[in-house]
């Protein structure tokens, strides 16, 4: 199993700072299960303001499922927006399909970032 590349930047709770800094409802955050997978359940917002429920893999922190609801709606409402995520395994064949960070596709030209003071 691959190691977590962000391991050295984890907080005391074992989660990346971006997750621990997210305002969550503590009563609803913690170990859970989604589609038979172990998960960490995070909740941002409230029933009054609208809510985003997110289930992430406890080893990789990749999302498994998100459910977004409008104020006053429940996660089981037919008006809730649910997204389920499936990730390809990190085999050599799958990794070869990725474009390296910073690569410029053929036929395109990289231009300086105007906002960077150029």
Morphology: extended
Describe the biggest sheet? 5 strands, antiparallel
Which stretches of 5+ consecutive residues score pLDDT under 50?
A: 1-10
Strand neighbour order, sheet with most strands? 1-2-3-4-5
Secondary-structure element pattern, one letter each: HEEEEEH
Number of domain modules = 1
Helix fraction by DSSP (H/I, runs of at least 4) = under 10%
Please report the distance between the alpha carbons of the first and last residues.
Answer: 44 Å
Number of helices: 2
The secondary-structure class comes to: mainly beta
Q: Could you tell me the mean pLDDT?
A: 78
Query: Would you count the extended β strands for me?
Result: 5
Rg calc = 18 Å
């Amino acid at each position: 199993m691959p190691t977590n590349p962000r391991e050295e930047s984890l907080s005391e709770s074992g989660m990346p700072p971006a997750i621990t800094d997210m305002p969550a409802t503590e009563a609803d955050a913690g170990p859970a299960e989604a589609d038979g997978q172990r998960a960490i359940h995070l909740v941002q917002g409230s029933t009054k303001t609208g809510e985003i429920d997110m289930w992430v893999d406890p080893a990789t922190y990749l999302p498994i499922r998100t459910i977004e609801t409008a104020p006053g709606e429940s996660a089981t409402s037919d008006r809730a927006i649910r997204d389920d995520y499936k990730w390809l395994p990190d085999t050599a064949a799958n990794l070869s399909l990725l474009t390296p960070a910073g690569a410029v596709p053929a036929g395109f030209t990289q231009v300086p970032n105007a906002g960077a003071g150029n």
